[in-house]
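Q: What does the assembly look like in three dimensions?
Context provided by user:
Components: three
Sequences:
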Amino acid sequence: MEIRQPSWPVQAIRYGVLIVLAVIFLVPIVFIAFTALKSRSDLLTSPFYALPEKFQWGNFAKAWNQGKMGMYMKNTALISVIKVPLGILVEALAAFALTRLNFKWSNAMFAFFLIGMMIPMQATLVPLNIFLNKTHLVSTYPGIILIYIGFGIPFGILILRGFFRTIPKEIDEAALIDGCGDIGKFFRVILPLSMPAIATLVILDFMATWNEFLLAQIFITKDSMRTITTGLLSFRGEHSTDYTLMNAGVLLSIIPILVVYLLFQKYFVSGLTGSVKG
Amino acid sequence: MTARALKPWLFLLPALTIYLIVIFVPSLYTFYLSFFKWNGVAADKVFVGLDNYADLILHDSVFARALKNNLLWTAGSLILMIGIGLMLALLLNKRIKGRIVFRGIFYFPYVLSGVIVATSWAWMYNPTQGFVNKLLETIGLESWTRAWLAEPETALYAVFVAALWQGVGQPMVLFLAGLQTIPHDPYEAAVLDGAKPYQSFWYITFPLLRETLVIVVATTMIASMKVYDIIYAMTGGGPAESTQVLSSWMYYQTFKFANIGTGSAISFFLVLITMVVIIPYVYYTTKRSHL
Amino acid sequence: MKKTISALLSLLIAGVMAAGCGSGDNGSSEDGQNGGEKKVAISFWALNTGWEWLEPAVKDFENANPNIDVELTQYEVDPIKEALKVAASSKTLPDMWFTWGGTLGSFYPENGLTMDLTQIAKDHRWSEIYNKAAIDMSTYDGKVSGIPVHLNVLGMWYSKNVYDKLKLQAPKTFAEFESQLAALKNGGVVPLAFGSKGGWHTMRLTEQLIEHFAGPELHDKLNRLEASWNDPAVIKAFEKIQEYTDKGYFPKGYSSLDPTEAESLFYQEQAAMINEGTWFDGNIMENGFDPNNYDVFKFPNDQPPSRASVFAEMFQINGGSSPEKQEAAVKLGEYLTRPEVVNKYIEQYGSPATLNVNISEKTPHLKTLLDSAGDGAFLITDQALPQEVVQKLFEAQDKLAFHEWTPQQAAEAMDEAIAKYKSK
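A: Here is the predicted structure of the complete assembly.
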């Protein structure tokens, strides 16, 4: 994006701001890591910001085993790997209709989808539970995935519609000349051009699915099918909580999210700009 | 209906079907319940018309406080969350060494589960042993130390800072993606015309970021109106209900007091006021677009 | 770019296929019989942390009863309340579930969702097996509605070190208790390690102050909503909360302190006393400290009899489940509360409602506390009052601390909340 080399004071200010902010952002993260490495008695007799008396690296293994994290992570991965692409496909098809097909009800339908974002999830739990029960989808992956996709739709459409709109209409016309139908246009033109948007959505959606708690807790009542957030909360008890293991567990549990983030964030720089020019 | 008119509906079909099943119909049911007094189980629901809404507005002091808190939270998020998110995205869109690391750091809190963020920040705010007060003491601002979460004047803001720390990654990621859609050509032209950097931001970046901005503003506003987890985990709505928000109060009414009607009414009140702002906003910004 | 798309698509297809095969039943509504042999599958929801013994105990049970399959699902505190409420509204309750007593557990029997265990209690001589108070607290409207599992008694825990240092001994009278608060404060120790986020720590003091000023009879009436809270005794109790706050008897910022943070002050001996219950030996141990360094006294409320605050926890059984499932659930519930089983897991079990069990030496204060309820007990406030009224009390406690309300105003607010609840 940068055209000319900025003067050194400008660059120095940029680094200065970034480094200060990064330190502020890192401080709580460091404390969270400290907590994960403390013993329980150490945690309760020293300030939160203090270094661990003795580094308890074993906490990670303990959290992994006690929290049954292997099983829960596998379950969550299965759900996410299905939910995220499937959801994005469904959302992209809808966003395509809203932006590319001269659809008369385009704005009205968009507003209709948007309302879904405003509804608090808790308000839908009972009717959804009745629905899942009637369709025998309680405690099944299709059931929870269907619900996750549903709750992801408004946000996905909002994002994708916005990005689709920034793709110049001339490109459509070029595709038309190339003999692409609407399906072809969707898969061959619009989707590839929207990689930054899709990458963004993958990152955000994967994270939201991975960390989702409320719906999973209500609609998965079989321990062997539960997701990772449930496993982490099992360190929180009726009368006391093991924060050391909980923090260790959380740090382990977010590794996949960070991997997905690192894999997809590169599309930010190699996405649309390149394609438009090329 | 002609095939041409039918086509958009075909593309919409999967999303629309799932949306209707998962969100729309259940919400209608909740909307319907907001006109009843019901404990969630009893065979008879008592129809009370608009009483649940009237009671909330006229007789429920916690509801009023919650609404006010939501509005404060929304204002704060719109200004600070979006402002900082945009600033980070602009900075990290430049040629900066280690920008992947920086992006990772700012995004990191966003992936942490809410419980951890809440407890960690609560401990940082601990009045006698917390990092925040220790830091203030160390730099000679002892008079500024206080029980951040325990004073109704500061509790909400203290939670907000934690939420800001956690949440700024989302607008940042969205803005970063939006910045990628801006082609180089206008900048090159601007440089040739001798534009100053702030001018090229104001006249090129900003208008071209508009679609992203609409998205970020809409999601931030909606999320602020629905905010719940972090507040519930950090203060439970206290002290003295001073940090209740609509969603947490809805939770209390529905799950703790078994007042399903009142809980549903809060949900719909929330939807209604969000809708009144968001839909015209999105419409207006959409109409202006030349694309 | 094409590669990404095709990768995305193949993921998708794999996903659809995987989604297609991942089916299961929830085990709560369908019965798990297969073929000729009669196998009963029951679903059971309970708490997780602090209940680690449940999983192996359920396994033992399944081994002893090969014709019964138990699908155990464990939750933490708030989620189990949510999950049960949602399940109740959509008629998908499990065959057996854990619940607290009082107004937290009454929802299910009052709405006809639980099995009436009165006859079984009689036939199986529960009165000889379980603590009477626990059975009483599992009884609603004259019907026994739960299998008692825990009977928790509250007391004031204190650090022996701190008390020794200041040459104090467990107080016998309210006046002595108050003089100790002052002595501790003067000795540079926070007297009461309260973390009242969620309201409980303060509430456990408020209820004893009300007991002290109002006496058992009026206190019970207040809790049954039969007497006005705008009463001199309540106002005096509220005045004390305000006074103790003003005098710095609680930690700084206690109204938003998490109970864990309060516990931390207690272990560091920066604070002397904490208002906890029969489970607290377990907490001390889990957190890596020695229970023998601490002791507990019954709150000296100067009343004859001096009553302790108690609450019960129970397993309720689904009234709508089939008779075979109900029978299996009763069997499981009784098994889990049987003296042999309790004894086997006693160190983790908590405070059993079952009589004639061997208390572990590792929980030295459990017996003292259980015995302290022998003279009499009252149901803990957050299970005695309707939840809306409890919430108002929590608000009142905080507002008293901030001087936003006078004790008089707080008492009036309680009455208002009660009137509102009654008019529902």
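Follow-up: Chain C touches chain A through 61 residues (CB under 8 Å).
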